[in-house]
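Deviations from the work plan: none for this task. Representative record:
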Amino acid sequence: MALIKVKGLKKDYPLGKTVVHALRGIDLTVEKGELISVVGPSGCGKTTLLNIIGCIDHPTEGVVEIDKVDITSLDDKKLTDLRLYKIGFIFQTFNLIPVLDVKENIEFPLLLMKGKKTFSQKEINQRVERLIEEVGLKDYVKHKPAELSGGQRQRVAIARALVTNPDIVLADEPTANLDSETGESILAIMRELNEIEKTTFIFSTHNPDVLKYAKRVIRLKDGLIVGEE
Amino acid sequence: MNLIFIKIAFRNLSRHKVKSLIVGGLIFLVSFIMTIGNGVIKGMNTGLRKNVVEGFTGHIVLISTNQFDKEVFGSLSGRPIALMNDYSKTESVLKSLNYIKDFLPVGRNVAMVLTETRIPIFWLLISVDMDEYQKFFNSNLIVIEGNSLLSNDTGLLIGSEQRKYAANFFNIWFYPVGSEINYSNMPPKVFTNRENLEYKTDAVLMGLSEDFSSDVRIPVKGIVKFKNLNNFFGGFVFVDRKSFVEIFNYIVEKIDESKISEEQKKILKEENLDSLLEEELFATSLDVRKEGYKTEEIKKAIKKEKEINYNPEAYNAVLIKLKNGINEDVALKKLNEELKKSGCDAKAISWKDATPQLAQMIGMIQGTFNMIIFLLFLVSFIVIMNTISMSVIERITEIGMMRAVGAQKRFIANLIRLESLILGVVFGGGGVISGAITCWFIRMLKLTSKNEMMNLVFGGEVFSPLVGFGDIFSNILVLIFLVLLAIIYPAGLAKKVTPLEAIARE
């Protein structure tokens, strides 16, 4: 069953008097439980594609369906809810809340939830503790982001992305700011979680060494898909 | 949810200490000044109200229905006011009302003091039973020279400020008859000029009235001053009842002109009648034409005029004190209804209306304070808005990231609001409480001033800024309102931050 369906996706950015065509017509289908890597040189449109799928950016043209819902027709409130309940994000620069410690950062999205999907504090604690253990940060629960290494921060970001049990986790160059050993350990965690939780992962990278962790590789060039493995 | 919300707000404030201290310090300063300013204004109002109501006007003043200008007390001279007709009817109505504690009828009008320079001095005359007056106003009047007026005395009690005015502008120094000149009571400027002063123990008064009035020479019995607000009300001149009705010719029956011959009428119209009788009302006799009049005829005419029955109930105002706990506005309304229903020639006005100049000055002082506070508010509004906007701009990545992981715009705006409100409550509350403590401390010091303007600001001679618990609460509310107003723009700015901006800033 297709979780993500992208059809004829185009994205243009005005740059002064010229227009940059970041995406020139992407067609893509992602099934539930896939672990996909989007690769390509800088400026090929990897981040733009992930941003649009993650409801962070709007396409200029085309259709993007997540769980059969066309996200291009949703308002800001619904897009925000979609990000909260269905999508998890892992950023290149970790983007943690500096004033919160590891546990608080991980539980933050859960505390934003309202209505049927709210959790009791006990459930939140259980969920967070399990994830902390899975990403190997048991001894750093009370540490603030500034007191952690890059790899540790990215682990926190992974745990935060997974805490809501999302359908999709989008990771934009998750290893770019990490050394190769740490980067590989992060990807190993992602792969493990993909297998255990059956969460769909899409991560972008320009590092060919990490491609082995992906089950499917999509190659982008100049805003177009040029190959798939 | 709420806990993390508060945690983020508090920790952000602590993280951006300098900004928090700038905004907080400003809020503290505004709240401190606002509390002290409000305390001074409230103290002034309370003090003035207490001093004016309990020392000069009572809660309510009655005047004639024919009187449109409400100024009963105020300036050094004042303006003439109409006589209240049939006072006894008004008196019986007042006696029947259970919310009235006490009332005092007063003759009040304006007379000219005739001087040799032919430039008259205008005096605001108050005619009242002095014992009743002192009882009504808790002995607010102090005799500083001479004696007070007893029931059957004829004489004047001149207010110390009025005497000072006469000395400064007319070189006349009044002092009580039968007393020595007390140089120690002379203001320094007057004392320096003592050689050039004319010393007088009486005054020739001519009533300012639309009807006929008389010139009457009245001895000065005493010089008086008020315990409070003497600078403002010390221009009053008290006169005995008999002289008052004589000056203003307040008579019960009109002269039966048929009993006066044409020649006598002509004599009575003569301007320098006093000189014709050689009674030397003025210190220097004036040249008058004596030929053509028979002295006997003159004396007969005057005698007939003196046989007129003067009105013992000639009052221009009634001062009323209400019982404790009675609302002034409600009582004023009810009283006017009663007076109208009973057909009295009286209408009730508030003590503030009766002292318009005082109210005007209070308004000016309050206006100045309010303007200062408004300017402070404006400056604070701009600084708070700018500082928090800057803080939002600096935190765009963080805000954008929160939006990316699912925080709604409202959450972000509320977070900014909460941070600002914490500053408002902590620093504003601190400022208000510090201001209140300062006011209480100043009150304990019992600072006094004799300066006229300061007396108004103080609401009396003692500086007593007043801050109650209700004021503390309302001041904090005002500050919260200011903060909420100042963060509309930054909160809006924060709401506009998109997750994309967080990523773009990477």
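The interface with chain A takes residues 1, 4, 7-8, 11-12, 14-15, 397-398, 401-409, 411, 498-500, 502-503, 506 of chain B (CB under 8 Å).
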